[in-house]
Every structure is written in structure tokens, then in C-alpha cells.
Amino acid sequence: LSHRQFYCILLGDDDKHGDHRAELEKLIIHHKLEGNIKIVKHTYDMPAAYVMSSLVINTATKPEAFGRIAIEAQAMGVPVIASDHGGAKETIRDGVTGFLVPPGDVDALTQKIEEVLAMDKKKIDIIAASAAQHVREHFSLDQMCKKTLQVYRELAKPKRGQ
Does the predicted TM-score (pTM) go above 0.85? Predict the structure, then answer.
């Protein structure tokens, strides 16, 4: 990133995928980002984590089926940058409720982070409000149950000629 006016929290344990923490800490030191980036363990209080955030980045390299992080952040009115695959393609309307970047494209991610950090508060507030409304309208528990039941009804319908 071209400027250092940010504070990043890398949230989550590394025990499932090997010890990446040491590698990340070396990179943080190498790029002189010790004052900008903090690695912390997993938290069960995600609402508090989202409330403290002005931007959530979820750049999974492998497509996730649903992508709960993006939905939760949007529901809390926090803009999201996510990889343009898997569930994020369905839950984020690029440029309207959040932002999508090509998976694994570091340059595109960097550019998008710079762009979002440079946005004025009014534009961020509009995106955050659109995101929260989008989640309420399309991804509430009630909506998801209705859609699931509709799929079951369609599958249970007798096929023509049977």
C-alpha cells in the first residue's frame, strides 16, 4: 500500500493450516509494518470485531460455498473486499454492497484497498447501508428457510409423465 494510514488485524488461528504466523510476522517486519498490522487469535465475538472495522477483507484462495464472513460484515454495515468466486459472487454486488477482486491477484487487491481507503465517508456510508439492506432482504434466516423450502417443493413435485 502506498500509505501507512491504516491498522490491520489479522484475525484467526493458524493451527488448521500449518504455522503461517511466523512467515507472516517476518513479512510484517520486512515491510516495516509492525505498527500497522497485528495478528490475533480467533474470537467468538465477531460482532465486536466487525463494529471495530472500517473494512473487512476476505480473500479466500479457494471458493467458499457461502462465505459467512462477507454476509456478517455487510449485515453490520461494514464494507467488504472479497475474492470474486464462490459464495461472495452471490452475496456481494460489486461496487454497490462491497467489492470483488480476482482471486490471488495481489495487485488488484492492493488497488481496491487503496481505492476504498481513499473513499469519502459519505460514499462508504452509502455502500454500508446498501450492504446491510441487501443482507436483510436476501440473506436473513427467514429468507434462507423460505428459499430452501422452495427448492424442496420443486424437487418433490411429480415430473410430467410419471
Answer: no
